[in-house]
Write a structure and sequence with these properties.
Distance between the termini: 47 Å
Number of helices: 6
Helix content: 55-70%
Length: 181
């Protein structure tokens, strides 16, 4: 995804990443309202804010050319400080996404109406980890497969979120506080 910010038309992808980051940030307050009164009411919105800020930063800081995709012909022998910063910030987004899914899994695991969603949330987190790991392995190869897994790490949690919000929209109750033991 980030490699699309390289080259003459790269400014378009930089705008896309930055705009997406601002859209994610716009969801922080609604998440706080949705989760009010229960576990994760603060942690999940904070993690969501980290994801949004990370996308804004990755939109502003270009990555180094990827193996097999060097539109400017830089042929870098080693990573640049800005390229390393880009990777680290993208790592913050991925880690925040995984931790956020696990925070929600804990919250939903205590709610009988959503108990199966705890498993779904954990599996989604696992798929994100697998996508990021596969991206990391293939990103040093000129195979072209790395980008598909980079996109997967972004799309999979979005599918989870849309499914979660759809269920809320259709009237599924979300327990405010855990039952007394």
């Amino acid at each position: 995804m980030s490699a699309l910010s390289l080259g003459p038309g790269g400014w378009i992808q930089m705008i896309n990443l930055t705009a997406f980051g601002f859209m994610v940030l716009a969801t922080v307050s609604p998440w706080r309202r949705i989760l009010a009164g229960g576990r994760g009411e603060t942690a999940y919105p904070v993690l969501t804010a980290l994801i949004g800020m990370s996308f804004i930063a990755t939109g502003l800081i270009q990555q180094d050319p990827a193996p097999g995709y060097d539109p400017a012909g830089l042929a870098l022998a080693k990573a640049t400080p800005m390229g390393l910063a880009h990777i680290a910030i993208a790592g913050v987004a991925a880690l925040s996404s995984v931790i956020g899914l696990l925070v929600i899994a804990v919250r939903l695991g205590r709610d009988p109406a959503w108990a199966h969603w705890a498993f779904y949330s954990c599996m989604t987190a696992l798929v994100v980890v697998l996508c990021v790991t596969t991206y990391g392995v293939w990103s040093v190869q000129p195979s072209g497969f790395a980008g598909a897994f980079e996109r997967g790490a972004m799309v999979v949690p979005m599918v989870w979120m849309f499914a979660f919000l759809r269920r809320l929209y259709r009237g599924a109750p979300l327990m405010v506080s855990p039952p007394a033991v």
